[in-house]
């Protein structure tokens, strides 16, 4: 049995002053949100009280942007020398195009290795690496792995703002009565 014995008029007035029914246009927008569920929140499977929580809180989704390696601009002399050592090892194997490979390994590469830092954006470097791939002394995979680095700042999940704030603006919180009214 409900009684008003412990009724606090100030508390009720405070609660009612903050609670405003949704205008018709907003109610229609909320009905569309709950029906279409554009963010895939699963409203149709939820009780009204669960919808209140789901629509009012920020949530995480799988990052829609795939993880991509980041191009490197430079490499150290030692890093470049290790890559070229792979090419040198392959150049001596039977069937390798030894003469052209030897030209790059004996003439071009020593010139490049005179620098402490190798500019990987230089066409001389990219052309040399492309030639070593074409000659079969390096694979494209080896060159791609060398020319890029992993994106250590990549976020596998990203936060999305609450659907209430997307629909009605920052700071808006929908109440149970709004959900009940929208669901009819």
Description:
By secondary structure, the protein is mainly alpha-helical. The protein folds into two domains: 73 residues, no CATH class; 80 residues, no CATH class. 52% of the residues lie in helices and 10% in strands. It has nine helices and six strands; from the N terminus they run αααβββααβααββαα. The strands form three sheets. A two-stranded antiparallel sheet has the order 1-6. Helix 2 packs across helix 9 and helix 4 runs antiparallel to helix 5. It is rod-shaped, with a radius of gyration of 32 Å. 14% of the residues are buried.
Query: What is the number of strand segments?
Result: 6
Q: Judging from the principal axes of the Cα atoms, what is the shape?
A: rod-shaped
- Strand proportion, as a percent range, falls in 5-15%
Radius of gyration: 32 Å
Strand order of the largest sheet: 1-6
Low-confidence stretches: 1-5
Class by alpha and beta content: mainly alpha
What is the count of DSSP helices, taking H or I runs of 4+ residues? Answer: 9
How confident is the prediction overall: mean pLDDT? 85
* Largest beta-sheet details: 2 strands, antiparallel
Share of helical residues: 40-55%
Give the CA-CA distance, first to last residue. Answer: 27 Å
């Amino acid at each position: 049995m409900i009684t008003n014995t412990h009724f606090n008029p100030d508390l009720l007035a405070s609660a009612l002053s903050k609670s405003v029914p949704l205008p018709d246009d907003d109610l229609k927008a909320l009905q569309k949100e709950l029906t279409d569920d554009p963010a895939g929140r699963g409203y149709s499977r939820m009780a009204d009280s669960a919808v209140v929580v789901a629509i009012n809180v920020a949530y995480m989704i799988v990052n829609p942007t795939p993880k991509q390696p980041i191009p490197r601009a430079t490499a150290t002399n030692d890093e470049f020398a290790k890559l070229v050592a792979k090419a040198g090892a392959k150049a001596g194997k039977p069937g390798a195009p030894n003469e052209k490979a030897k030209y790059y390994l004996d003439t071009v590469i020593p010139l490049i290795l005179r620098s402490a830092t190798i500019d990987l954006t230089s066409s001389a470097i990219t052309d040399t690496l492309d030639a070593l791939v074409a000659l079969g002394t390096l694979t494209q995979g080896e060159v791609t792995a060398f020319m890029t680095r992993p994106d250590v700042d990549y976020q596998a999940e990203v936060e999305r703002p609450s659907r209430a704030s997307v629909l009605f603006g920052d700071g808006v919180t929908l109440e149970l009565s709004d959900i009940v009214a929208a669901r009819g």
